[in-house]
Design brief:
two-stranded antiparallel ribbon; mainly alpha; 2 strands; about 50% helix
Length: about 70
């Protein structure tokens, strides 16, 4: 049933937005990674400090920022 799928999808998006609100409220740097060390997301503090957008981290391998820093 498509309405059930849409309801589950909206529930996921709602929970995700709550998680992002919490993570962005933390003044320190927060990131979450997959088991193979690829970024799933970062909070605003880390994105701002790096000069990148939060979206720019997604899918990148942990440590990719070292290529931006001299």
């Amino acid at each position: 049933d498509i309405s059930e799928v849409k309801g589950l999808e909206l529930g996921y998006l709602h929970r995700t937005s709550h998680v992002m609100t919490l993570m962005n409220a933390i003044p320190g740097y927060v990131s979450w990674l997959t088991n193979d060390l690829h970024y799933i997301g970062v909070n605003e503090a880390l994105a701002t400090a790096s000069g990148l957008t939060q979206e720019a981290f997604v899918g990148k391998k942990y440590g990719f920022l070292s290529t931006y820093i001299d």
